[in-house]
Amino acid sequence: MTGDGNPPGLILAGGLSRRMGRDKASALLAGRPMIDRIAERLRPQVSSLALNACEGFAGVRDLPLVPDLHMDRPGPLAGVLAGLRHAAALPDAPGHLLTVPADTPFLPTDLVLRLVGQADDRTRIVLASSAGQIHPVIALWPLSLADDLEGWMASSDNRRLQSYIARHPAIAIDFALVDTPAGTLDPFFNVNTPEDLATAERFIEVLSR
Ligand SMILES: Nc1nc2c(ncn2[C@@H]2O[C@H](COP(=O)(O)OP(=O)(O)OP(=O)(O)O)[C@@H](O)[C@H]2O)c(=O)[nH]1
Predict the structure, then answer these.
(1) Quick one: which atom of ligand 1 is closest to the CA of 24?
(2) 159-175 pLDDT, tens digit each
(3) Is 161 flagged in the annotation as binding?
């Protein structure tokens, strides 16, 4: 990787949180906003951390806001594009950007280490996977993709991350499930609903014992 250091990180929080019924990034999880837990997990793994959300997002005060560039084109790809442009302007000239969603509070502490280990060129997208499932929002993106992604978004109505990724070299790195007294925890467990929030609280409780 350029700079041979950790990549900058971007938390994607530009979604509508319809299933949660309120902004999920700032939803309290065991007494703390979920996004604080995610930021805490990521900070030691990245060179800098920013938040992608809509202009005016009030959920987090201590992260720089990177707004979507294509407000008429919703979807996480718009956040990735905004993040790639943001990262390209950073002083240490990173080669890649790490993205994670705002709803995965159990991110592995070796997430970046393992993804970066496979980022051996400037073109390959390195994705996280678990239990045989790829998580396309949890990925290392080469900064060199920015113009290509912008062109794709301008010329196609397809907003699926998987469709864009399928056009590029990509590799998925599998992360193990974790056995806990509350059951098996997927490190990329997604908190989308109030019920998921309750499940996540149970895991936090047993993991903190
Ligand atoms: N920048 C950006 N990110 C988005 C957008 N839509 C979804 N995301 C992000 O993509 C990730 C996955 O989103 P989902 O959980 O599928 O959707 P959501 O809108 O957050 O939640 P639901 O409305 O319940 O589907 C999350 O990190 C979202 O914040 C968008 O329009 N712009």
Answers:
(1) 20
(2) 899 999 999 999 999 99
(3) no
Query: Would you say 72 is a known binding-site residue?
Result: no
Q: Tell which atom from ligand 1 comes closest to the C-alpha of 19.
A: 24
ipTM tops the 0.90 cut: yes
Which CATH fold topology does 2-207 show?
A: Spore Coat Polysaccharide Biosynthesis Protein SpsA; Chain A (3.90.550)
Quick one: pLDDT at residue 71? 66
What does the buried/exposed string (b/e) look like for 160-172 if buried means 16 or more CB atoms within 10 Å of the residue's CB? Answer: ebeebbeeeebeb
- Nearest atom of ligand 1 to the alpha carbon of 100: 27
User: Per the annotation, does 42 bind a ligand?
Assistant: no
Alpha-carbon distance 10 to 79, whole Å? 9
Beta pairing partners, 133: 130
As a whole number, the mean pLDDT across the chain is: 91
> Where do the structural domains in the chain lie, given as residue ranges?
2-207
| pLDDT above 50 for 124 | yes
